[in-house]
């Protein structure tokens, strides 16, 4: 089976599409270089809302979006990311507690083994 030949042009270099669009508002990573961060007031409001309830119902999402001047999708993504960070911290705390408990049991076991060897 014969493969179609690649056409080459002396006028057009083979640049990736994102480099050809010089008037685009995206950078080479496909991101908007003017992406704005949330203000400290917006973050504080979102954190307070998260502390009240980690799940976000549609009404609360719309209310927060209106109050903070953000898109509902931004609110949803922020909550999703915050839940992921929260879950990671929860796992860290659980690991620390279990490790502490294990260390206590391990020391007790070692102590009992020493007592058995002495008797």
Automatic annotation (TrEMBL):
DNA-binding region(s) from the entry: 31-90
UniProt key word Protein transport: no
SUPFAM superfamilies cross-referenced by the UniProt entry: Homeodomain-like (SSF46689)
GO molecular function per UniProt: DNA-binding transcription factor activity, RNA polymerase II-specific; sequence-specific DNA binding
Alphabetized PROSITE patterns for the sequence: HOMEOBOX_1, HOMEOBOX_2
Localization terms from the record: Nucleus
Protein name: Homeobox-leucine zipper protein
Originating species: Sesamum calycinum
């Amino acid at each position: 089976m014969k493969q179609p030949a690649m056409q080459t042009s002396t006028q057009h270099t083979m640049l990736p599409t994102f480099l050809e669009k010089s008037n685009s508002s995206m950078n080479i990573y496909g991101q908007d270089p003017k992406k704005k961060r949330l203000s400290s007031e917006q973050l504080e409001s979102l954190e307070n809302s998260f502390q009240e309830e980690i799940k976000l119902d549609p009404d609360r999402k719309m209310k927060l979006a209106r109050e903070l001047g953000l898109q509902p999708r931004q609110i949803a993504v922020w909550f999703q990311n915050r839940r992921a960070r929260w879950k990671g911290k929860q796992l860290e705390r659980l690991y620390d507690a279990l490790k502490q408990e294990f260390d206590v049991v391990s020391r007790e076991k070692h102590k009992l083994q020493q007592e058995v060897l002495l008797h």
